[in-house]
Amino acid sequence: MSSVGKKAQSARSDAPKGGRGDGASAARAVNRTELSTIDFSGDASIALADCAGMVRVHEVGPGIGATYEEAAVLYANGDLREAESLLDGALSDDGGAAGEGLWMMLLDLYRLTGQRERFESRVLDYATRFERSPPPWNDLSKKPMRARSEVVPLINLAGNLSSAATEQFRQMLVIGQKSGAIRIDLKRVRSFENEGCGLLLDAIKKLGRERAKVSLMNAAGLVEMLAGKVRPGEADDRESWLLLLELLQHTGEFERFEDVALDYAITFEESPPSWENVEPAAVTEATSAAEEVQHSDATFVLEGDVTHAGAEVLRKLAAFASERSSVEVECGLLRRMDFVSAGTLFNILSTLRAQGKLVCLQNVNAMVAALLRVMGIDQVAQVMLRG
User: Fold this and answer.
1) Which segments in the chain show pLDDT lower than 50?
2) Rounded Cα–Cα distance for residues 317 and 301 (Å)
3) How far is Cα 378 from Cα 18, in angstroms, rounded to an integer?
4) In the chain, which residue ranges form alpha helices assigned H by DSSP?
5) Are 314 and 341 in contact (CB under 8 A)?
6) What pLDDT, on a 0 to 100 scale, did the predictor assign at position 94?
């Protein structure tokens, strides 16, 4: 196993976009001098210009080299036909020497462009060559519809829980009704007013009546604040009492619920709400970092084409990861990432790695994975190919 560092040469405006040439045209098209003029900073603190000399092609087997690099960059630039021509020619003329990496790139490119006939004409050769079952046909050219339950919207409540949040709760209802499920993170709630408790309780009840699943996350802090506020025998702040009883159901504290319910009945001289079994939120404050990554709360989704024109999604990723120790980036719906965005992603992941955070990019298609490898992103995060 060897690792070959490739230093970029001077840029040429007439560098070829396709063809096979000497196999280094893509490297010249994205050389160090050119990179140093691009601002990749965004929310990340590391400039890609400082890292351009670290871009490497890691030759871990046959087929990982100049053709691999060039095809990855062509696809990243949106030159799909040129990338296909390069890969097809390399596999046709290699005399059986091309490694599995190039084969997977071409097969995935066919799936990404909806070319089923060409995929099927090549897949038998793949199976014969590597003596294993080939990847199944899956048309990735069209954005698949997400199942309703795959990605549950997350609402963060912060600061003072008061009547001033009326509009936020209205939007919460719209989102929850539309998606059929919603997660509400209470970790950043620092104080509350009785009116705000009423708004939150009302939103939870309305969503429940419409059969929208509500998960209350990190509720322990607010539970303790409410418990310290209510006073048995003092018939004040009724909504605070009722919210406390609701939260105790979400945290699964049955015995404590029974005690508070009895105090409520005595204080307000009316029957308290009945206990209902509520499925606990996916992530609680007691969840370890190793467990957290298994839940949707720690998953960020990249989809479609990520280009420098839509850099906002990468800034959101940086913000999302800043508050977590482990993050899964779901890339099953990601079709393409351009070179500039890959540079920004490298900056973000390098910063997160330096902070000791673990990031896994999963279900990455072979064409995008090739670019991530060329950029060295596999050195600062785990990259897992899709099946």
Assistant:
1) 1-63, 144-149, 281-296
2) 9
3) 25
4) 25-29, 32-35, 66-76, 80-93, 100-112, 116-130, 166-179, 194-209, 220-229, 238-250, 254-268, 289-292, 312-322, 339-354, 366-374
5) yes
6) 62
Helices and strands (H and E) in the chain: how many: 15, 9
Could you give phi then psi for residue 90, rounded to 5 degrees?
Answer: -65, -40
- CA triple 319-323-328, angle to 5 deg: 80
pTM assigned to the model: 0.49
Q: Residue 191: name the closest of 232, 157, 239 by CA.
A: 157
Q: Fill in the amino acid letter for 104.
A: M
What the block records as the tokens of 50 is 């400082």
The structure tokens listed for 65 are 């080299």
**d(Cα 138, Cα 116) in Å, to the nearest integer?**
9
Which CATH fold would you assign to the domain 289-385?
Transcription Regulator spoIIAA (3.30.750)
Burial of 183 (0-12, 13-18, 19+ CB in 10 A): buried
How do the domains of the chain map onto residue ranges? Answer: 4-130, 154-268, 289-385
Strand 326-337 relative to strand 358-364, pairing: parallel
- Tell me: the pLDDT tens digits for 330-376? 998 899 999 899 999 999 999 999 999 999 999 999 999 999 999 99
CA gyration radius, the chain: 27
Residue among 145, 67, 133 nearest 106 (CA): 67
Q: 289-385: same fold as 154-268?
A: yes
Token pair in block for residue 159? 């600061």
- Total number of residues shown for the chain: 387
Q: 239 — phi, psi (to 5°)?
A: -65, -30
Residue 267 near residue 235 (C-beta atoms within 8 A):
yes
| CA 268 to the chain's CA centroid | 47
- Please tell me the predicted confidence (pLDDT) of residue 43: 38
Superfamily assignment of 154-268 in CATH? STAS domain (3.30.750.24)
**Residue 85 and residue 18 in contact, taking contact as beta carbons nearer than 8 Å:** yes
Segments in 36-134 forming alpha helices (H): 66-76, 80-93, 100-112, 116-130
